[in-house]
TrEMBL record:
<feature type="domain" description="Thiolase N-terminal">
    <location>
        <begin position="45"/>
        <end position="316"/>
    </location>
</feature>
<protein>
    <recommendedName>
        <fullName>acetyl-CoA C-acyltransferase</fullName>
        <ecNumber>2.3.1.16</ecNumber>
    </recommendedName>
</protein>
<dbReference type="InterPro" id="IPR002155">
    <property type="entry name" value="Thiolase"/>
</dbReference>
<dbReference type="InterPro" id="IPR016039">
    <property type="entry name" value="Thiolase-like"/>
</dbReference>
<keyword id="KW-0808">Transferase</keyword>
<dbReference type="InterPro" id="IPR020615">
    <property type="entry name" value="Thiolase_acyl_enz_int_AS"/>
</dbReference>
<dbReference type="GO" id="GO:0005739">
    <property type="term" value="C:mitochondrion"/>
</dbReference>
<keyword id="KW-0443">Lipid metabolism</keyword>
<dbReference type="Pfam" id="PF00108">
    <property type="entry name" value="Thiolase_N"/>
</dbReference>
<dbReference type="Pfam" id="PF02803">
    <property type="entry name" value="Thiolase_C"/>
</dbReference>
<comment type="similarity">
    <text>Belongs to the thiolase-like superfamily. Thiolase family.</text>
</comment>
<dbReference type="GO" id="GO:0006635">
    <property type="term" value="P:fatty acid beta-oxidation"/>
</dbReference>
<dbReference type="GO" id="GO:0003988">
    <property type="term" value="F:acetyl-CoA C-acyltransferase activity"/>
</dbReference>
<dbReference type="InterPro" id="IPR020616">
    <property type="entry name" value="Thiolase_N"/>
</dbReference>
<dbReference type="InterPro" id="IPR020610">
    <property type="entry name" value="Thiolase_AS"/>
</dbReference>
<dbReference type="InterPro" id="IPR020617">
    <property type="entry name" value="Thiolase_C"/>
</dbReference>
<keyword id="KW-0963">Cytoplasm</keyword>
């Protein structure tokens, strides 16, 4: 390669391509001194604040809306809460999983609807349950390389109205009918329709690679790690109790009320939080692996509607805009592993990796916010972290990672109780981490989550000096 570069650099007013001299009309000169001297990676990237709509069980108060309505409300509410100037936002990263075809780039459509500048680019991200984590870390990357300074990240999921397609044969006929020019051609196509064509193509929360639902994977993990039904129900009950307590104490300051057309009362709180009793939980039947499975409707996260948004910028820019950040965004990592047997073990892989990257230990972390897909998934990840065998075989470590003190773990409840709108959960995790760092007077917080495809994320936040909720 080097001799070739030297040969090319000697050619005046042109360059050689396969023995042909081609003109170089712009007079471009090779600059041997260019590159790698301009380093912006030392920027302090901060999380200013985040908001979310109330997370509601699908089919309830939001059922007649669109994902666009919730996304728009989150972006509008973020600006109102923080008070940043509209023109300050340079880019928008927004996540969604179950995409509404009318608003395929939901980030752009919702931003326009919320009054953001038409000159602010936006793109939509999908990475299953960690889509808005990806929105945040994409923002971090764009800021770190100096492309932008102020970015809004967010995500929305609307399970009350998911896209349901005609069957593939029916879709094919419709496309052919659209091209048919004569009456005879159209009648011929009409005559080829069969009753089976009317069976819809229903979406499923299942892995394309394995055809298995996450609930089955939850049951698989429970069996592999010897987790009992009682343990799962106890953990689920813990989540609901802590969420109910946090809700009653007003800790969910990230929730922004929304007035839904046709609903008399303003929607101002999550509606999936329900404190039951061990006896009531024990009566529920297995939801996936019947009759011997342990995952039930009560110890699994439910289908949820909701949206979230957050402002990400540099410490310097926040100061210039008169904004007070809540936390530094210090580090992150993504992981992936076997999507069959280890589909939900993302946290067990991401936690040690992000701790190592950040030169931190488990004892350094004062706030843990880990996505609760299923109680079995949480307990399996905790057991994996506490296993020398798992560490040696899968993490290539000499000894186990260890587990945190549980009073620092999801102390305001989690997805099992608050709800899990797939692409909106990541912002909720980050906002709760930042708020808990302040409320609980801790320095470092760790966020982790699993996602479809056997993927996962780990993130480290550090409390901003003198930050307030």
């Amino acid at each position: 390669m080097l001799p070739f570069i030297k040969a090319v650099s000697k050619i005046e007013q042109g360059f050689k391509v396969y023995g042909v001299i081609c003109p170089r009309p712009w007079g471009v000169q090779i600059n041997k001194n260019y590159a790698t001297k301009y380093d912006q990676t030392s920027k302090n990237i901060v999380f200013v604040d985040g908001v979310r709509t109330p997370f509601l069980q699908s089919g309830t108060q939001y059922k007649n809306l669109m994902s666009y309505d919730l996304a728009r409300h989150s972006l509008l509410s973020l600006r109102r809460k923080i008070g940043f100037p509209n023109e300050a936002v340079e880019y928008i990263c927004y996540g969604t999983v179950m995409q509404e075809i009318k608003t395929s780039n939901i980030g752009r459509e919702a931003a326009l609807g919320a009054g953001y500048s038409e000159h602010t680019p936006a793109h939509t991200i999908t990475m299953a349950c960690i889509s808005s984590n990806q929105a945040i870390t994409t923002a971090m990357g764009l800021i770190a390389c100096g492309t932008y300074d102020v970015i809004v990240a967010g995500g929305v999921e609307f399970m009350s109205d998911i896209p349901i397609r005609h069957s593939r044969p029916m879709r094919s006929l419709m496309l052919q009918a659209n091209k048919a020019k004569t009456l005879a051609q159209k009648l011929s196509l009409l005559g080829s329709i069969r009753p089976s064509h009317f069976v819809p193509d229903l979406p499923a929360v299942a892995e394309f690679s394995s055809g298995e639902t996450m609930g089955h994977s939850g049951d698989r993990l429970a069996a592999a790690f010897a987790i009992t039904r009682k343990e799962e129900d106890e953990y689920a009950l813990r989540s609901h109790k802590l969420a109910a307590q946090a809700q009653s104490l007003g800790y969910f300051s990230d929730v922004v009320p929304i007035k839904v057309p046709g609903i008399e009362e303003v929607v101002n709180k999550d509606n999936g939080i329900r404190v039951s009793t061990p006896e009531q939980l024990a009566k529920l039947k297995p939801a996936f692996v019947k009759p011997y499975g342990t995952v039930t409707a009560a110890n699994a996260s439910f289908l949820t509607d909701g949206a979230s948004a957050a402002l990400i910028t540099t410490e310097e820019k926040a100061r210039l805009l008169g904004l007070k950040p809540k936390a530094y965004l210090r580090n992150f990592t993504y992981v992936s592993q076997d999507p069959v047997d280890q589909l939900l073990l993302g946290p067990a892989y991401a936690i040690p990796k992000v701790l190592e990257k950040s030169k931190l230990s488990i004892k350094d972390v004062g706030v843990w916010e880990v996505h609760e897909a299923f109680a079995a998934q949480i307990l399996a990840n905790l057991k994996a972290l506490d296993s020398d065998w798992f560490a040696q075989r899968y993490l290539k470590k000499s000894e186990k990672v260890g587990v945190p003190e549980l009073q620092k773990w999801n102390s305001w409840g989690g997805s099992l109780s608050i709800g899990h709108p797939f692409a909106a959960t990541g912002i909720r995790l980050v906002t709760h981490t930042a708020n808990r760092l302040i409320k609980e007077d801790q320095q470092f917080g760790l966020i982790a989550a699993c996602a479809a495809g056997g993927q996962g994320v780990g993130m480290i936040l550090e409390r901003y000096p003198d930050a307030k909720i």
